Amino acid sequence: MDLNLGFLASHNGSNVRAILENIAAGELIAKPMVVITNNPDAGVIGVASSFGVESVCINDKQHSPYPTLDEAILEELLGFDVNLVVLAGYMKPVGQNVIAKYHNRILNIHPALLPKYGGKGMYGMNVHRAVIASNDKESGATIHLVDPLYDDGRILSQAKVERSSTDTPESLAEKVLRVEHQLYTQVLRRIQRGEITLD
User: Residue 11 catalytic?
Assistant: First the structure.
C-alpha cells in the first residue's frame, strides 16, 4: 500500500518526528502530506517545518470556512490526498465524518497494553499513574485502528516494557515513549509492505 500520511498531533510531536526521521533515512517508504494540529503553539509545527511538511492549525476557533471542526479536518485531509491518518498525541476526539471517510485508515497509538487502561480519560500521564497504582509487571504501547469508541478499534501491534518497582509515572512514560517511537514506524512499514491488512 502506498502511504500518503496525514498526522494529527497536539503537542511536541515526538512520534511525528520519529516517523519523519525514518522516512528521511529511507527506513520507511511513505509520503508525509500534512500535519494538522489543534494547538497554534504546538511544537509539532516546528517539527513539520524542519522536514518541509506543511502544517495546518484547525480547532474550535479556527475552522472557517467550514461549519464544523470535523468537516474542516476532513477537507484538509482530502485536499492533501491523505490515504492514512496517523494520530500522534492528538488530544481531541476524531469526528464522525473523518472516521466514516477514513474507515480502517486511521491509526492511533496508546501508551498502554490495550484493552487495559483505555477509554475516556485514559490519556497521557493518567495512563501511567493507573499502571503504577496496579500490580502489573509490565506496560507498553498499542497501535490500533480508530472507531467511534475510545481505544476500541482493532489492535494492530503492541510492544511491551518491563515495569520496575522503582518506576514513577514519569519514568514509565519515558520507557513507553521510547518503544512508541520504534513501534509506529514498524507498523507503518508492515502496512506499506502488505504484511498488515487494514480491511
Answer: no
Amino acid identity, residue 38? N
Structure confidence at residue 5 (pLDDT): 98
Contacts of 107 by beta carbon, 8 Å cutoff, 6+ apart = 84, 85, 86, 87, 143, 144, 145, 146, 156, 184, 187, 188
Q: What is the mean pLDDT of the chain?
A: 97
Counting as low any pLDDT under 70, the low residues of the chain are none
Kindly report each contact of residues 64-70 with a partner whose C-beta sits within 8 Å and lies 24 or more positions away, as own/partner: 68/95, 68/97, 69/95, 70/95, 70/96, 70/97, 70/98
Write down the catalytic residue from 11, 63, 103, 110: 110
Largest CA distance in the chain: 52
Asked if residue 67 has a cis previous peptide bond (ω within 30° of 0), the answer is no
C-alpha cell at 126: 493518567
Sign of CA dihedral 190, 191, 192, 195: positive
List of domains in the chain = 4-192 (3.40.50.170)
